[in-house]
Write a structure and sequence with these properties.
The complex is a heterodimer.
Chain A (H helix, E strand, L loop, with lengths): L16 H10 L10 H30 L7 H4 L2 E3 L2 E3 L2 H25 L3 H31 L13 H33 L1 H4 L13 H26 L1
Antiparallel strand pairs in A: 1-2
Helix pairs in contact in A: 2-6, 2-8, 4-5, 4-8, 5-6, 6-8
Chain B lengths: L1 H8 L16 H23 L4 H23 L7 H8 L2 H25 L5
Helix pairs in contact in B: 2-3
Classes of the chains: A mainly alpha, B mainly alpha.
Protein backbone atom coordinates (compact mmCIF):
# COMPACT_ATOMS: atom_id res chain seq x y z
CA UNK A 1 0.00 0.00 0.00
CA UNK A 2 1.02 3.55 -0.56
CA UNK A 3 2.12 5.43 2.53
CA UNK A 4 -0.29 8.11 3.67
CA UNK A 5 2.37 10.60 4.66
CA UNK A 6 6.00 11.13 3.91
CA UNK A 7 7.82 9.14 6.57
CA UNK A 8 11.02 10.70 7.82
CA UNK A 9 14.15 8.89 6.74
CA UNK A 10 12.41 6.26 4.64
CA UNK A 11 11.96 6.62 0.92
CA UNK A 12 8.34 6.10 -0.04
CA UNK A 13 7.39 3.20 -2.26
CA UNK A 14 5.41 4.82 -5.02
CA UNK A 15 3.69 2.95 -7.82
CA UNK A 16 4.54 4.14 -11.32
CA UNK A 17 2.19 5.22 -14.09
CA UNK A 18 -1.58 4.91 -14.05
CA UNK A 19 -1.62 2.53 -11.07
CA UNK A 20 0.31 5.19 -9.16
CA UNK A 21 -2.15 7.88 -10.21
CA UNK A 22 -5.05 5.82 -8.84
CA UNK A 23 -3.18 4.84 -5.68
CA UNK A 24 -2.10 8.45 -4.98
CA UNK A 25 -5.57 9.92 -5.44
CA UNK A 26 -7.34 7.18 -3.46
CA UNK A 27 -4.90 7.27 -0.54
CA UNK A 28 -5.42 9.06 2.78
CA UNK A 29 -4.25 12.52 3.78
CA UNK A 30 -2.30 13.63 0.72
CA UNK A 31 -2.40 12.98 -3.00
CA UNK A 32 0.84 14.69 -4.03
CA UNK A 33 3.26 12.17 -2.55
CA UNK A 34 6.65 13.48 -3.63
CA UNK A 35 5.65 17.09 -4.17
CA UNK A 36 6.24 19.59 -1.37
CA UNK A 37 3.29 21.69 -0.25
CA UNK A 38 4.94 24.84 -1.59
CA UNK A 39 5.28 23.45 -5.07
CA UNK A 40 1.80 21.90 -5.10
CA UNK A 41 0.28 25.20 -3.93
CA UNK A 42 2.14 27.15 -6.61
CA UNK A 43 0.85 24.75 -9.27
CA UNK A 44 -2.72 25.08 -7.97
CA UNK A 45 -2.39 28.87 -7.88
CA UNK A 46 -1.15 28.79 -11.47
CA UNK A 47 -4.14 26.66 -12.43
CA UNK A 48 -6.47 29.30 -10.96
CA UNK A 49 -4.50 31.99 -12.79
CA UNK A 50 -4.95 29.96 -15.97
CA UNK A 51 -8.70 30.27 -15.48
CA UNK A 52 -8.43 34.04 -15.01
CA UNK A 53 -6.43 34.56 -18.20
CA UNK A 54 -8.69 32.08 -20.00
CA UNK A 55 -11.70 34.18 -19.06
CA UNK A 56 -10.00 37.31 -20.43
CA UNK A 57 -9.08 35.61 -23.68
CA UNK A 58 -12.54 34.05 -24.04
CA UNK A 59 -14.13 37.49 -23.46
CA UNK A 60 -11.83 38.85 -26.15
CA UNK A 61 -12.85 36.04 -28.52
CA UNK A 62 -16.53 36.69 -27.80
CA UNK A 63 -16.45 40.47 -28.43
CA UNK A 64 -14.24 40.13 -31.49
CA UNK A 65 -16.40 37.42 -33.05
CA UNK A 66 -19.68 39.22 -32.33
CA UNK A 67 -18.85 42.79 -33.45
CA UNK A 68 -19.98 43.93 -36.86
CA UNK A 69 -17.35 46.69 -36.96
CA UNK A 70 -13.95 45.88 -38.47
CA UNK A 71 -11.28 44.75 -35.98
CA UNK A 72 -8.14 46.95 -36.09
CA UNK A 73 -5.26 45.30 -37.96
CA UNK A 74 -2.78 44.48 -35.19
CA UNK A 75 -0.02 44.01 -37.74
CA UNK A 76 -0.28 47.73 -38.60
CA UNK A 77 -1.28 49.03 -35.15
CA UNK A 78 1.84 47.55 -33.55
CA UNK A 79 4.19 48.36 -36.41
CA UNK A 80 7.23 50.50 -35.69
CA UNK A 81 8.95 52.94 -37.99
CA UNK A 82 12.60 51.89 -38.04
CA UNK A 83 14.93 53.58 -40.52
CA UNK A 84 12.06 55.05 -42.49
CA UNK A 85 10.31 51.70 -42.95
CA UNK A 86 7.20 50.40 -41.22
CA UNK A 87 8.07 46.98 -39.79
CA UNK A 88 4.92 45.09 -38.74
CA UNK A 89 4.57 43.86 -35.17
CA UNK A 90 8.31 44.25 -34.54
CA UNK A 91 7.98 45.58 -30.99
CA UNK A 92 5.81 42.63 -29.98
CA UNK A 93 8.27 40.20 -31.57
CA UNK A 94 11.15 41.74 -29.60
CA UNK A 95 9.08 41.60 -26.39
CA UNK A 96 8.44 37.90 -27.08
CA UNK A 97 12.16 37.19 -27.49
CA UNK A 98 12.97 39.14 -24.32
CA UNK A 99 10.45 37.14 -22.29
CA UNK A 100 11.60 33.80 -23.72
CA UNK A 101 15.19 34.72 -22.88
CA UNK A 102 14.12 35.49 -19.32
CA UNK A 103 12.56 32.02 -19.12
CA UNK A 104 15.82 30.51 -20.36
CA UNK A 105 17.91 32.24 -17.70
CA UNK A 106 15.33 31.31 -15.05
CA UNK A 107 15.43 27.62 -15.99
CA UNK A 108 19.22 27.68 -15.66
CA UNK A 109 18.98 29.51 -12.33
CA UNK A 110 16.79 26.68 -10.98
CA UNK A 111 19.34 24.15 -12.21
CA UNK A 112 22.26 25.94 -10.54
CA UNK A 113 20.13 26.35 -7.43
CA UNK A 114 19.90 22.59 -7.05
CA UNK A 115 23.66 22.42 -7.47
CA UNK A 116 23.90 24.94 -4.59
CA UNK A 117 25.89 27.29 -6.80
CA UNK A 118 24.85 30.51 -5.07
CA UNK A 119 26.69 32.97 -7.29
CA UNK A 120 25.48 31.61 -10.63
CA UNK A 121 21.91 31.16 -9.34
CA UNK A 122 21.72 34.75 -8.09
CA UNK A 123 23.28 36.22 -11.24
CA UNK A 124 20.92 34.26 -13.50
CA UNK A 125 17.95 35.36 -11.40
CA UNK A 126 19.07 38.98 -11.64
CA UNK A 127 19.39 38.54 -15.42
CA UNK A 128 15.83 37.17 -15.45
CA UNK A 129 14.62 40.18 -13.47
CA UNK A 130 16.44 42.52 -15.87
CA UNK A 131 14.76 40.87 -18.88
CA UNK A 132 11.41 41.12 -17.08
CA UNK A 133 11.92 44.82 -16.32
CA UNK A 134 12.90 45.40 -19.98
CA UNK A 135 9.67 43.71 -21.03
CA UNK A 136 7.57 45.93 -18.76
CA UNK A 137 9.44 48.99 -20.04
CA UNK A 138 8.67 48.06 -23.63
CA UNK A 139 5.06 47.50 -22.68
CA UNK A 140 4.90 50.97 -21.14
CA UNK A 141 6.30 52.33 -24.42
CA UNK A 142 3.66 50.40 -26.37
CA UNK A 143 0.83 51.69 -24.13
CA UNK A 144 2.11 55.27 -24.45
CA UNK A 145 2.26 54.97 -28.24
CA UNK A 146 -1.30 53.62 -28.46
CA UNK A 147 -2.73 56.14 -26.00
CA UNK A 148 -1.20 59.07 -27.92
CA UNK A 149 -2.71 57.61 -31.08
CA UNK A 150 -6.14 57.79 -29.46
CA UNK A 151 -6.76 54.25 -28.25
CA UNK A 152 -9.06 54.21 -25.21
CA UNK A 153 -10.91 51.40 -23.43
CA UNK A 154 -14.09 52.75 -25.01
CA UNK A 155 -12.88 53.45 -28.54
CA UNK A 156 -10.10 53.85 -31.08
CA UNK A 157 -9.65 55.45 -34.51
CA UNK A 158 -9.59 52.18 -36.49
CA UNK A 159 -12.69 50.17 -35.71
CA UNK A 160 -14.34 48.07 -33.02
CA UNK A 161 -14.20 49.90 -29.65
CA UNK A 162 -13.71 46.54 -27.85
CA UNK A 163 -10.16 46.49 -29.22
CA UNK A 164 -9.02 49.02 -26.61
CA UNK A 165 -10.81 47.47 -23.66
CA UNK A 166 -9.52 43.95 -24.31
CA UNK A 167 -6.03 45.23 -25.13
CA UNK A 168 -5.63 47.23 -21.92
CA UNK A 169 -7.25 44.53 -19.80
CA UNK A 170 -5.25 41.57 -21.11
CA UNK A 171 -1.81 43.18 -21.54
CA UNK A 172 -2.31 45.20 -18.34
CA UNK A 173 -3.03 42.12 -16.28
CA UNK A 174 -0.11 40.29 -17.85
CA UNK A 175 2.22 43.25 -17.26
CA UNK A 176 1.13 43.30 -13.62
CA UNK A 177 2.10 39.64 -13.35
CA UNK A 178 5.51 40.37 -14.85
CA UNK A 179 6.04 43.29 -12.45
CA UNK A 180 5.16 41.17 -9.41
CA UNK A 181 7.46 38.47 -10.78
CA UNK A 182 10.38 40.91 -11.06
CA UNK A 183 9.89 42.02 -7.44
CA UNK A 184 9.83 38.44 -6.16
CA UNK A 185 12.81 37.49 -8.34
CA UNK A 186 14.82 40.26 -6.66
CA UNK A 187 13.72 39.09 -3.20
CA UNK A 188 14.62 35.43 -3.84
CA UNK A 189 17.88 36.38 -5.60
CA UNK A 190 18.89 38.36 -2.49
CA UNK A 191 18.16 35.34 -0.30
CA UNK A 192 20.25 33.10 -2.56
CA UNK A 193 23.11 35.61 -2.68
CA UNK A 194 23.14 35.95 1.11
CA UNK A 195 23.08 32.16 1.52
CA UNK A 196 19.76 32.04 3.39
CA UNK A 197 18.99 28.59 2.03
CA UNK A 198 22.24 27.25 3.49
CA UNK A 199 22.28 29.04 6.84
CA UNK A 200 18.58 28.38 7.44
CA UNK A 201 17.83 32.05 8.03
CA UNK A 202 14.08 32.46 8.63
CA UNK A 203 12.08 34.30 5.98
CA UNK A 204 10.97 37.87 6.78
CA UNK A 205 7.32 37.01 6.20
CA UNK A 206 6.92 33.32 6.95
CA UNK A 207 9.63 33.03 9.65
CA UNK A 208 10.42 29.62 8.16
CA UNK A 209 13.62 28.24 6.74
CA UNK A 210 13.76 28.34 2.95
CA UNK A 211 15.24 25.73 0.64
CA UNK A 212 16.67 25.84 -2.86
CA UNK A 213 13.30 24.52 -3.96
CA UNK A 214 12.06 28.10 -3.46
CA UNK A 215 14.03 29.01 -6.57
CA UNK A 216 12.16 26.36 -8.52
CA UNK A 217 8.79 27.54 -7.17
CA UNK A 218 9.71 31.10 -8.16
CA UNK A 219 10.66 29.66 -11.56
CA UNK A 220 7.25 28.01 -11.95
CA UNK A 221 5.59 31.40 -11.56
CA UNK A 222 7.98 33.05 -13.98
CA UNK A 223 7.60 30.39 -16.67
CA UNK A 224 3.85 30.70 -16.30
CA UNK A 225 4.08 34.42 -17.09
CA UNK A 226 6.00 33.48 -20.24
CA UNK A 227 3.43 30.78 -21.00
CA UNK A 228 0.54 33.25 -20.81
CA UNK A 229 2.42 35.57 -23.17
CA UNK A 230 2.66 32.71 -25.71
CA UNK A 231 -1.15 32.59 -25.80
CA UNK A 232 -1.60 36.40 -25.81
CA UNK A 233 0.94 36.71 -28.64
CA UNK A 234 -0.90 34.07 -30.70
CA UNK A 235 -4.49 35.11 -30.05
CA UNK A 236 -4.33 38.87 -29.58
CA UNK A 237 -1.43 39.98 -31.77
CA UNK A 238 -1.22 37.36 -34.53
CA UNK A 239 -4.83 36.20 -35.00
CA UNK B 1 32.52 24.48 0.34
CA UNK B 2 29.01 25.75 -0.07
CA UNK B 3 27.85 22.29 -1.06
CA UNK B 4 29.46 20.74 1.98
CA UNK B 5 27.71 23.28 4.22
CA UNK B 6 24.41 22.59 2.54
CA UNK B 7 24.81 18.85 2.89
CA UNK B 8 25.57 19.28 6.57
CA UNK B 9 22.62 21.62 7.08
CA UNK B 10 20.14 19.29 5.45
CA UNK B 11 19.05 16.24 7.41
CA UNK B 12 18.27 13.24 5.23
CA UNK B 13 14.56 13.46 5.89
CA UNK B 14 14.18 16.90 4.33
CA UNK B 15 16.17 16.04 1.22
CA UNK B 16 13.38 16.00 -1.31
CA UNK B 17 13.15 13.96 -4.50
CA UNK B 18 13.20 17.29 -6.36
CA UNK B 19 16.91 17.45 -5.90
CA UNK B 20 17.10 14.99 -8.77
CA UNK B 21 16.52 17.93 -11.13
CA UNK B 22 20.08 19.05 -10.62
CA UNK B 23 21.14 16.12 -12.76
CA UNK B 24 19.72 17.70 -15.90
CA UNK B 25 22.52 19.17 -17.98
CA UNK B 26 22.38 22.90 -18.75
CA UNK B 27 22.50 21.96 -22.43
CA UNK B 28 18.89 20.73 -22.21
CA UNK B 29 17.71 24.23 -21.28
CA UNK B 30 19.81 25.88 -23.97
CA UNK B 31 18.35 23.54 -26.62
CA UNK B 32 14.78 24.30 -25.48
CA UNK B 33 15.60 28.01 -25.39
CA UNK B 34 16.87 27.83 -28.98
CA UNK B 35 13.73 25.97 -30.07
CA UNK B 36 11.49 28.60 -28.44
CA UNK B 37 13.38 31.27 -30.39
CA UNK B 38 12.95 29.36 -33.65
CA UNK B 39 9.23 28.75 -33.06
CA UNK B 40 8.65 32.41 -32.11
CA UNK B 41 10.44 33.48 -35.29
CA UNK B 42 8.18 31.17 -37.31
CA UNK B 43 5.08 32.70 -35.64
CA UNK B 44 6.33 36.18 -36.46
CA UNK B 45 7.07 35.20 -40.07
CA UNK B 46 3.47 34.00 -40.47
CA UNK B 47 2.43 37.62 -39.89
CA UNK B 48 5.37 39.14 -41.79
CA UNK B 49 4.58 37.21 -44.98
CA UNK B 50 0.82 37.87 -44.63
CA UNK B 51 -0.22 34.23 -44.57
CA UNK B 52 -4.03 34.36 -44.40
CA UNK B 53 -7.03 32.14 -43.76
CA UNK B 54 -7.01 28.66 -42.32
CA UNK B 55 -3.30 28.17 -42.99
CA UNK B 56 -2.54 31.23 -40.83
CA UNK B 57 -4.69 30.04 -37.92
CA UNK B 58 -3.35 26.48 -38.14
CA UNK B 59 0.28 27.65 -38.12
CA UNK B 60 -0.30 30.11 -35.26
CA UNK B 61 -1.95 27.41 -33.14
CA UNK B 62 0.69 24.83 -34.01
CA UNK B 63 3.62 27.07 -33.01
CA UNK B 64 1.74 28.27 -29.92
CA UNK B 65 1.04 24.74 -28.69
CA UNK B 66 4.60 23.58 -29.37
CA UNK B 67 6.00 26.53 -27.41
CA UNK B 68 3.54 26.01 -24.55
CA UNK B 69 4.38 22.30 -24.46
CA UNK B 70 8.13 22.94 -24.28
CA UNK B 71 7.75 25.53 -21.51
CA UNK B 72 5.46 23.36 -19.37
CA UNK B 73 7.26 20.05 -19.95
CA UNK B 74 10.91 21.13 -19.66
CA UNK B 75 11.16 24.59 -18.08
CA UNK B 76 8.42 23.85 -15.52
CA UNK B 77 9.66 20.24 -15.09
CA UNK B 78 6.19 18.79 -15.67
CA UNK B 79 7.73 15.92 -17.67
CA UNK B 80 9.41 14.64 -14.49
CA UNK B 81 6.42 14.97 -12.16
CA UNK B 82 4.12 12.12 -11.14
CA UNK B 83 0.93 11.54 -13.14
CA UNK B 84 -1.00 12.60 -10.02
CA UNK B 85 0.20 16.20 -10.34
CA UNK B 86 0.20 16.24 -14.16
CA UNK B 87 -3.47 15.24 -14.34
CA UNK B 88 -4.47 17.55 -11.47
CA UNK B 89 -3.09 20.54 -13.40
CA UNK B 90 -3.64 19.62 -17.05
CA UNK B 91 -7.14 18.11 -16.88
CA UNK B 92 -9.12 21.12 -15.46
CA UNK B 93 -8.27 23.31 -18.50
CA UNK B 94 -10.50 20.95 -20.51
CA UNK B 95 -13.36 22.89 -18.89
CA UNK B 96 -11.84 26.02 -20.48
CA UNK B 97 -12.02 24.33 -23.90
CA UNK B 98 -15.73 23.65 -23.35
CA UNK B 99 -16.23 27.27 -22.26
CA UNK B 100 -14.53 28.41 -25.49
CA UNK B 101 -16.89 26.20 -27.48
CA UNK B 102 -19.97 27.58 -25.69
CA UNK B 103 -18.90 31.21 -26.16
CA UNK B 104 -18.01 30.62 -29.82
CA UNK B 105 -21.60 29.53 -30.41
CA UNK B 106 -22.92 32.45 -28.35
CA UNK B 107 -20.84 35.08 -30.15
CA UNK B 108 -21.84 33.64 -33.51
CA UNK B 109 -25.48 34.06 -32.53
CA UNK B 110 -24.90 37.64 -31.28
CA UNK B 111 -23.09 38.50 -34.49
CA UNK B 112 -25.97 37.10 -36.54
CA UNK B 113 -28.50 39.20 -34.59
CA UNK B 114 -26.40 42.36 -34.94
CA UNK B 115 -25.91 41.81 -38.65
CA UNK B 116 -29.63 41.28 -39.02
CA UNK B 117 -30.83 44.31 -37.05
CA UNK B 118 -27.97 46.84 -36.83
CA UNK B 119 -25.79 46.44 -39.90
CA UNK B 120 -27.76 48.83 -42.08
CA UNK B 121 -29.22 51.17 -39.49
CA UNK B 122 -26.05 52.40 -37.73
Amino acid sequence: MTETTATAGQPQKLLPGMAGFVADWSSDQRAFKNTSWGKAMMWIFLLSDTFIFSCFLISYMTVRASTILPWPNTSEVFALNIGGEEIPLILIAIMTFVLISSSGTMAMAVNYGYRHDRKKTAILMLATAAFGATFVGMQAFEWTKLITEGVRPWGNPWGAPQFGSTFFMITGFHGTHVTIGVIFLLIIARKVWRGDFETGRPGFFTSRKGRYENVEIMGLYWHFVDLVWVFIFAFFYLW
Amino acid sequence: MAQAVAAAMQPASTATPHDEHKEHPIKLYLVVWAWLFVLSTFSYLVDYFHVQGYLRWTLICLFMLLKAGLIVAVFMHMAWERLTLIYAILMPPIAVMIFVWIMAIESDYTHWLRALFFATGM
